[in-house]
Design a protein that fits this description.
single chain, 385 residues, alpha/beta, Arc Repressor Mutant, subunit A, Trna Endonuclease, Chain: A, domain 1, 3 domains, 5-stranded mixed beta sheet, two-stranded parallel sheet, 19 helices, 9 strands, 46% helix, globular
Amino acid sequence: METSFLSLQAALEHVFKLAQKERIVLAIDEYPYVARASKSLASTLQLLIDQYKDRSRLMLILCGSSMSYMEDHVLAYKAPLYGRRTAQMKLLPFGFADACRCFEGFSDEDKALIYGIAGGTPQYLLQMDDRLSVEENIKKTFLNPTSSLFEEPENLLKQEVREPALYNAIITAIAAGASRMAEIAARIGEDTSVCAAYLKNLTELGLIQKKTPYGEKASRKSIYAISDNMFRFWYRVVPENASIIARGAAELAYRRIEPLLPEYMGKIFEEICGQYLWQLLLDGECPVTFPEIGRWWGTDPDSRSQTEIDLMGVQDKHTALFGECKWTNEKVDLGVLQKLEKRSQMFHYQDIHLYLFAKTGFTSGCIDAATAMGNVTLVAYGDIL
């Protein structure tokens, strides 16, 4: 039976009344769009919820991809619906393991590459085709002006902020390697005070992360990084090749991009290895029960030179974990292990556990040394899948 309504309020009231007799689930997808089109929607829902809350069996689900709108107009204290929700959920992207389940046709290495360029957002993963090579996937999405992914980052920014051009410039600068506040400000030609305000907004939107060396809450060494892999890759390859892409020269653009992939995948592999360690911890198989895991960078007190550790997790003042991740086609040798051991000693923990992660495995010398040391775990990329 079809029912027509003269207004959205009448339709909603009909659903609330029906839910007095039976369990009904009403999901309003992309709520911000509906709410912007119907200015009274939030107040109408507020009225109906208050009127029927004691006798209605309705489950009302409001979904929205605009984080700023959902936080300001649904979750905020001054919002009409404040105090009426019974739960809220921030849906996060898939991790590497879950993203891999979407693609049976890709090789093991290609699964990592696809995760590196598409991230874990299901809609972005749907744009990838495991019947094609990684190169073909990049060409048909990032290097194709007619694809939905090609304009996705800029469209999202237009939806979230009032001055997308400057925000675009900031994200592009970060993608190109400007990670510190002063570097970003210099790259975009703005004062650091202006840059700081825009970075704060991007951080609140979840597009940018402010990172400090592991174990340091506030630091002058803070850096900024792009949160989502798809955005990270898009801003790394599209802006500087925009003119080439617009002319339909996908092959030429890809030849410019391809040499960047190994270095780009280095940070992605660190992320994958960090997720692996988290899963070990949750499965009760990690020798160090860390509350957080992250990257450390700073000054080596012996050499007085800048150094970094890919992964670090501390259990207590006695026990810690240190990890090094190598996404290279060469097997990881003894020198990498020795370097990690030396860096781990900067922190003076008594019980140290070292993890070496390698794309293609380890040399016999590295394996023998790890066995002799007894506190080293060697993890090849194939072990992670």
